[in-house]
DNA sequence: CGGCATCCTAGTTGATACTG
DNA sequence: CAGTATCAACTAGGATGCCG
């Protein structure tokens, strides 16, 4: 994991600089970026992995911790995250059934960046809000 | 969770650890996170700010650099980014008209995190792809 | 408890045509 | 050149009901 530096044998011109031009369009990199953005950009995924950040959780627990999410969307979100290898789903053979979800190490590396973004959002919200007010006042509603 | 003691006058210490619980739901922080995610999570915004990362660009230039984007969506995306203070729009009084878009410093700080995320996406795509294949094979289509 | 199947709406995007 | 306007298509998401 440790996605610190990329391939040492690459002469440093690679991904990072390319990410925007190359990661832009219909390229492979572009698809990778789009994939991740589609996942964490949707309404609930980030909330789910955020809730799983430290502890593993059961289905209903997650539902309690994420106000407003429907059963359907929680299920769908969990399935996608599981499919992408970001969380694991463990069914315990008990009665009543108990299912636990847990962040994988891959999911753990993702959430670091997601949190950084969230942090940025919180810090810069005042500026964004101000910019909106300014914009709306000059561009008549 | 839900230690909902929200105090408008406590900005800095809190955020990072809270981001997930607190930034989760319908709180102020939650709205900030959602706002940003809605912006960079949409189909084109990240591509646009990525293209503006180094140089300022004209409308048609942007369109050329972002294959597949329609006039309409480019316009809408630019307007939203402008409204949020992430880019500036400069109209030069010439004939034919020339309009240039440029990243603001606020936009510049955002793109750092967005790029980190994009970088993560590129590096971990193989793992995600593998996870999907594994998932799809066990969960019969 | 932890789902899946179905129906349905509201918002987002794309194609197309027209304009200052 | 840099848009705006209109319409059609698609889809994410919510509500509901049933099941192992």
UniProtKB/TrEMBL annotation, chains A, B:
Domain HTH hxlR-type: from-to ranges: 20-129
Transmembrane helix among keywords: no
Entry keywords, A to Z: DNA-binding, Transcription, Transcription regulation
Basic and acidic residues bias: start-end ranges: 1-21
Classification via Pfam families: HxlR (PF01638)
Keyword Ubl conjugation: no
Lineage top rank: taxon: Bacteria
Database matches in PANTHER family: TRANSCRIPTIONAL REGULATOR, MARR FAMILY, TRANSCRIPTIONAL REGULATORY PROTEIN
The protein, known as: Helix-turn-helix domain-containing protein
Taxonomic path: Bacteria, Bacillati, Actinomycetota, Actinomycetes, Micrococcales
